[in-house]
Design goal:
Length: 123
């Protein structure tokens, strides 16, 4: 009678560790797009706006030398648009990357000290 309990306990323990260790990786394969936004400039970025098909995320201020992780939910296939203000100058970057609603898309955006944009897209 004790053997079935041991089997269930072992199964439950293994299942728990699989979910904890592998779960985040599996979710990233099907999860919503994630944007890793790094401001490496010497200035803070004001009114940072990330937008695409069916979404718009506005962040009032991103301090210098700061990284943020932003999840977005496009309604369908989408390009990514970025705008921000630095020292009263408006910057706009259109069609930075392609993404879909799900599929584990990960887009890394870096604003360099020269206020240039570097993009790395992964899926």
């Amino acid at each position: 009678m004790k053997k079935p309990l041991i089997k269930y306990g072992v199964f439950a323990t293994i299942t728990f560790f699989v979910i904890v260790l592998i779960g985040p990786e599996i979710y990233s394969l099907w999860g919503s797009p994630q944007i890793i936004f790094a401001n490496q400039s010497r200035d803070g970025l004001n009114n940072v706006t990330l937008s695409g098909t069916g979404f718009e995320k506005v962040i009032d201020w991103i301090p210098p030398k700061t990284t943020r992780i932003i999840k977005v939910k496009p309604k369908s296939e989408s390009s990514l648009k970025l705008s921000f203000i630095v020292n009263d100058e408006f910057y706009l970057y259109d069609d930075l990357s392609y993404m879909e609603s799900y599929g584990g898309y990960r887009i890394e955006i870096t604003v360099t000290p020269e206020l240039e944009i570097k993009i790395i897209s992964k899926f």
